[in-house]
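Entry:
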Amino acid sequence: MWIRRLTLSHFRNYRSLELELPRGCTLILGDNAQGKSNLLEAAFLLATTRSDRVPTDGGLIHWDALDEAQPVARVTADVERNDGPLELEIVLVGRPRPGERARVPASKRLRVNGVAKRQADVVGQLMAVLFTTDDMELISGSPSTRRRYLDVMLSQIDSAYTQALQRYGKVVTQRNALLKRIQSGEAGANELDFWDLELSGHGATLIDMRATAMQALASHAASAHRNLSGGLEELACEYLPRLEGWDASRCRQEAAGLKPAMQSALARNRPRDIGAGMTLTGPHRDDVSIELDGVSAAAFASRGQQRTAALALRLAEARFMADTRGDVPVLLLDDVLSELDEERRRAVLTSLGEWDQLLITSADADRFTEDITPQAVFRVSAGVIAPVS
């Protein structure tokens, strides 16, 4: 799988761009804040329909376009896949608010081959794995970051997961609203029965798919990490469901029991949930443990070790997606070599030769040696990109 052409209109700091991309490695050079990361963000937006870098989709619209009566940004890609080519398009239509240009709300219009589609039908049409400088949060950040790692990956692989995740999130929101009404005496606890049943069904799907995926991811991540670290450290990862009496192994072996177990847990914990005014049981509370040589990577690993572990998780994600879907995702690597010593840099570059397409950004071309040969090199300056001969 690879992006043959990427077209941007009023996206981030790009007024207009049509970029032809080759298979293999493309190196994107430029100083900070010139638009390198925005290119990768555009590609990842097409894969997942979402950006984590802005509070609203309107933040993706070029600043100058916000002065127009109807600000619009467009991101389009021609994608080559094993099962044939396709065109993906995301149009962001802003709704300006006077004096609030930094938080403009926007609606999204999604199309595949010119046909309007729902979000669940677009996610994963292009598969992409994005590594950024913020990915150390996978190791040292909150559980929500590690849950999102699993959610984004699994949503690109299986639309059933996307639908279960969307429905689960809505049910949690509705159940939490009901808990607050029960707290204030406006509703009875028996009204939770319907929402508990809904939550248990969708939650069991999420737990089952996460636990199964994490078993394969752990193996891929351990292998990738041995290569990246020269075998100096051993990386171990495990899914941690917050369901009393259940670990990852039991989730995989007794998947049919997850729904009744979660339903029982929700009923048992009702007084606690009512007191807190929120749902405290379910996969929205789960985590992933990450250890180096048997100890917590978050607590004891250096920044360089954490960065290596995070990259190993991303490479494991890409390998798992390729194995599951039978097509190789695009790798988007944003400043992948920073904070790594020379030996680990060389190991990283050596590990990147097997993928169909890599887009790599860097402020320093000298970091890239004979260990990797780009098929194309571009330089970005203030939202304008040009090939480097």
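The chain has two domains: 1-127+328-389, 134-326.
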